[in-house]
Amino acid sequence: MAWAIVFAWLAWVLIPKTKRGGRLILPLILILGILPDSDLFFKSFGILHRTLFHSLVTYSLLFIPLFVLFNWKAVPYFVAVTSHFIFGDLLIGQVAVFWPLNQSFFGFNYAMGSITDIALESAGLLLAAGIIIYNGDLKRTLSVDKRNLLMAFPLLAIVVSGLYFASRWPSLNSFFAEVFSSQLLTVLALGHIVLIGFLALSAFQGLKAFFTSDKDAM
Q: What is the CA radius of gyration of the chain?
């Protein structure tokens, strides 16, 4: 999610035509940043992880109508979703980037939880935070505004993702024991807590605005 913000913002800044779409839709960027991993829930349908949902071919085809409708405005969102596997998964593990044209897996195969993984995730979170602050998005997303209800969607996505990984352990105690078993994993866990806290607070502000406006109407 964090690197999706970074790469989408870079595309928005470096390609002037993308700015015609106005400010980037942050909740959508965050959702797209984690979207490829939804294939974890489709194993029963025979979809292997890091194949169909992690393919440049797949998203190129899916974005054709969006490019037709929105032209350059769609570019940052395409960059956001593809950065998940072209950057993240290509470094941490391996991925079938060109599936089904080429079903071979490519990648540098650094392990999750390694110092490389932690460094990349920490750097991504810090850069994303800097971008959000620089753009004025932090103030906007933490204000009482109905639009911030949309932050509930990336919040739900990251919580469901966390529950999925937690379900692989026999108990929550063993899961948390693993998560905080080393300083590196603790740093990663704290990064997720910060992100979840930000999303939860933003969504709460959106909910607050919703109920406040209803009371004013009454």
A: 18
* Residue ranges with strand state E in the chain: none
Residue whose entry in the numeric block shows the structure tokens 């502000």: 205
pLDDT for the residue numbered 26: 96
- Vertex 90 angle, CA 89 and 93, to 5°: 65
Q: Tell me: the pLDDT tens digits for 62-109?
A: 999 999 999 999 999 999 999 999 999 999 999 999 999 999 999 999
DSSP string, 36-64: GGGGGGGGGGT--TTSGGG-HHHHHHHTH
Ramachandran category for residue 15: left, alpha or beta (phi over 0 → left; psi -120 to 50 → alpha): beta
Q: Could you give the C-alpha distances from 18 to 21, 23, 29, 61, 152, in angstroms and in order?
A: 6, 10, 14, 20, 26
The answer to whether 92 and 110 are in contact (CB under 8 A) is yes
Q: Which two tokens stand for residue 212?
A: 């406040």
pLDDT of residue 214: 58
Taking Cα atoms as reference points, which of 114, 107, 115 lies closest to residue 85? Answer: 107
Distance CA 34, CA 3 (A): 10
Q: Are 148 and 201 in contact (CB under 8 A)?
A: no
Q: Is the pLDDT of residue 217 over 60?
A: no
Diameter over CA atoms, the chain: 61
Residue 113 class from Cβ within 10 Å (0-12 exposed, 13-18 middle, 19+ buried)? middle
Contact 124, 3 (CB under 8 A): yes
